[in-house]
Amino acid sequence: MTTEPMSSESTSRTSRRTSRRRPLRLPAWLQSWPLPARIALFASAALIVVAALGVGVDAAISAGRVHPGVQVGTVDVGGKTESEARTAIAAFVAEQSTIPVTAQAGGESWEVTAESVSLSVDATALAGDAFAVGRGSLGPAISERLRALFGGITVPIVLSCEDSALAALVLSMNETVATPPVDAGVSVEGVKVTRIEPVDGIGISEDDARERLLPAFISDDRVVEFELGPIAPAVDSDGAQQAYEDALKMVSAPLTLFYADKQWDVPAHIIGEWIGFRRIEGTEPATLEAYVVAEALSTDVLPMVAEVGKPARDAGFSVSNGTVSIVPAEDGLQADAADLAPKLDSVLTGDGERRAELAMHRVEPEITTAEAQAMGIVERISTFTTDYASSNKPRVNNIHTLADALDGTLIPPGGTFSFNETIGERTAEKGYQEANAIVNGELVPQLGGGICQVGTTIFNTVFFSGLPVVERRNHSQYISHYPTGRDATVSWGGPDFKFKNDTPNWVLVATGYSNSTVTISLYGTSPGYQVTYDTGPWTDIKNPPVKEVPDPTLPAGSRVVEEKGISGRTIVVVRHVMSNGVEIRTDSFKSVYRPTEEVVRVGTAGASPSGTTTTTP
Description:
There is one protein chain. This protein has four domains: 70-181, no CATH class; 234-364, Roll (Ubiquitin-like (UB roll)), CATH 3.10.20; 375-527, no CATH class; 528-617, Resuscitation-promoting factor rpfb fold (Single Sheet), CATH 2.20.230. Strand 8 (185-189) and strand 9 form a beta hairpin. The relative contact order is 0.06. The radius of gyration is 48 Å and the shape is elongated. By secondary structure, it is of the alpha+beta class. The chain contains 16 helices and 38 strands.
């Protein structure tokens, strides 16, 4: 049988069919693996492919957003932008922190608010931490994304507070329940230097409070129970050792201070009064440092070396015949304790000569010439003079002493002058003497008697200035040599005289006196007030009570007035204060005087022994 050869087209089709049926051949190295191993390999490859596809899909979905499954604390931030995550975190903390936390220790309880410790959260940083999950190098990034996707990843919320606020809270708690620690220290008495040993305390530590109290603001359990534990002193024995050694050196010998050709020797026990101790922070535990306290140094040194300086003089005012001029201020010169103190720290603890040169510095006056010029004290506003008997020397002395104390008083714009606050208590140390004064309607010797002469004078000065009178009290009994209805009584701890400076400039009180007169003037910038007044009639006149005292030296029935009584009476003085033709103020000063007893000696010579003492109304 003859077989015809196949055509080329048929051969080609047959070849293609054959190639489709050819089995896939594995590499020789893989063919040598057992079948289970080859199956495991193919499965792993498939998983990797699936994971890669998943990561790719996740990356596409999470572009610019926090990966799914990530939360900050209990706040789910997956799928949010950083900005959205930050807002969610901040809102959560803000809401949670509105509820106080209860702290308990030693049987005591405190309610702690977020505001009291200045609680805060860095929501921006936390949002950034959440966004960083699953980003970075490929291997760890894939692992984190898978963990987040299938198990979740939590970024813990970290809260902060102000250290000073937390310290204040812990301090207040410890004041109730703790035994505070005692720092190691050093004491100096004269030239005796003594160590103070440290002692541990028991209480709540700031670290424990920070670690346990802050997280409670975002937890379900708002009660934090603290156990009292040991609190170490801030300064231990080693930390105080150098201060002890330095203090010993500082009081080991006298000190010589010098300036130009003058010098002063300071004994060691005085140096001991200058030594203070302070903690040097930045080390744990802290160390103690001995140093010279500038303020203590000033107390001893400045008076000692005053001969090489001069005090500053404030600008003042000089008045004469109703005119006022400024007395310029003068700078002072004084030893500089602030400069000297650190020098002495080195001199007293060193091994060299115990000598130190004073530094001097300029001392500015409290009131400069320019400040005085700006006060507006340019003219006399009002003045008044009262007179008195020159024969009563103690009373004259008191009037002069008081006038001197009052002279130069300055009242600021809008300020209120108080007689008692300005003058202070009248004491023998200030130069006051005993003289008669009216006390409860009677003349009795009193330290500072005569001050009401000055009180009445300044009241009338203010009366005619038009300035507002804030407080004024009349004498308990009528005194005829004072202006009718315009007297004023003052006493320490009792009645006061006050007036207000209602001008836009300062007011100066100036005084002058002789042996029989005292004058008080007010200077400033005149407010232009015009003052008139009306003195009303005497009313409610009450005769004085009469006390009769039997006198066997006088003929029976005869009467001799020993102390003349004064009738009680009432009067009202009305002041009208005008400005530019308009009455701006009307003041009514009512004076009520009590009657004073009249004492009459009644003769009883030759009368029966049954004479009596009577008092008639």
